[in-house]
């Protein structure tokens, strides 16, 4: 356990392999997949640290429901900072229609543009290994997904790793493009937290180690989903809950509103909250 990240040894090992692959110019795509609150972003943040420690250039982006209609929105977040004029040369010059604000906007993902963006990333990776972090791809705009998929199929010889997260079966996601991306990726699915990790989270929040029966009740109520465990633990702490029965009761009714608030910032996606 480090920095509050519990029971994610396999995921961290996969992240380390991906970063090392980038450093060895055998680029790779790692896709962290799983339901809301399972801990995808938390692993992505760990990837940011690992990549930084290993001297990679980290570029990151987070898709959002609000930006989904904005063509290349995710690519802008990822690459604007790195798209220096001296890199937009040769084949990469075709990326300028997307990334150079003076050259008029392009929102379609034609081959030349995708190729240009690919070469921009390739040029960057000539200087330093590059780790691209992309959170919440289920909300990504279509042109950006096309780019990631294009890059994924050609990433082999590049000093580049893509680490991305997605919720499967999220309504409105570009399922076909995500499927295509998945075929070029290593997919890792963080699972529910094991009992000891649930106990650790409860202990941290409650200030004392809970009884075995309280741990059981928390596991039962949350299925080991770290978001649900932490919300339940926090609510239990503030309500002064002691007994497993009280905790189970909280689990049955107390967690839902807090989780709904988190999952529905825009008033959409109710089904995701329900599933969680
Ligand atoms: N391995 C872990 N150990 C301890 N706490 C964790 C762990 N994973 C996640 N958490 C906590 O659970 C909560 C949810 O995690 P996170 O935001 O990473 O989920 P997510 O899969 O990205 O969810 P979403 O699909 O909604 O973006 C956070 O508060 C995080 O701190
Ligand atoms: Mg997340």
TrEMBL record:
Q: Which UniProt keywords apply?
A: ATP-binding, Nucleotide-binding
Protein name, entry field: ATP-binding protein
What GO cellular component entries does it have?
A: cytoplasm
Which InterPro entries did the record assign? AAA_16, P-loop_NTPase
Start and end residues of each Orc1-like AAA ATPase domain: 5-156
Gene3D superfamilies given in the database record: P-loop containing nucleotide triphosphate hydrolases
Any GO molecular function: ATP binding
Enumerate the Pfam families for this protein. Answer: AAA_16 (PF13191)
């Amino acid at each position: 356990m480090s920095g509050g990240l519990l029971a994610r040894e396999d995921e961290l090992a996969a992240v380390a392999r991906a970063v090392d692959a980038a450093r060895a110019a055998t680029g790779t795509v790692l896709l962290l997949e799983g339901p809301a609150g399972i801990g995808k972003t938390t692993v992505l943040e760990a990837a940011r640290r690992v990549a930084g420690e290993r001297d990679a250039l980290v570029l990151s982006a987070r898709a959002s429901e609000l930006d989904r209609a904005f063509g290349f929105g995710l690519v802008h977040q990822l690459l604007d900072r790195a798209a220096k004029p001296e890199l937009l040369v040769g084949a990469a010059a075709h990326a300028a229609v997307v990334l150079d604000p003076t050259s008029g906007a392009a929102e379609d993902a034609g081959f030349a543009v995708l190729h240009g963006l690919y070469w921009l990333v390739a040029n960057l990776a000539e200087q330093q290994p590059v780790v691209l972090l992309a959170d919440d791809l289920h909300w990504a705009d279509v042109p950006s997904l096309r780019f990631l998929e294009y890059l994924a199929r050609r990433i082999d010889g590049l000093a580049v790793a893509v680490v991305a997260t997605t919720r499967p079966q999220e309504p409105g996601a570009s399922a076909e493009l995500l499927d295509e991306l998945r075929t070029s990726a290593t997919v890792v699915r963080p699972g529910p937290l094991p009992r000891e990790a649930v106990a650790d989270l409860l202990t941290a929040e409650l200030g004392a180690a809970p009884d075995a029966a309280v741990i059981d009740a928390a596991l039962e109520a949350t299925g080991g989903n770290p978001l649900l465990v932490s919300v339940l633990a926090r609510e239990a702490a503030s309500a002064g809950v002691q007994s497993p029965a009280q905790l189970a009761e909280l689990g049955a009714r107390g967690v839902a509103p807090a989780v709904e608030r988190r999952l529905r910032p825009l008033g959409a996606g109710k089904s995701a909250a329900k599933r969680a």
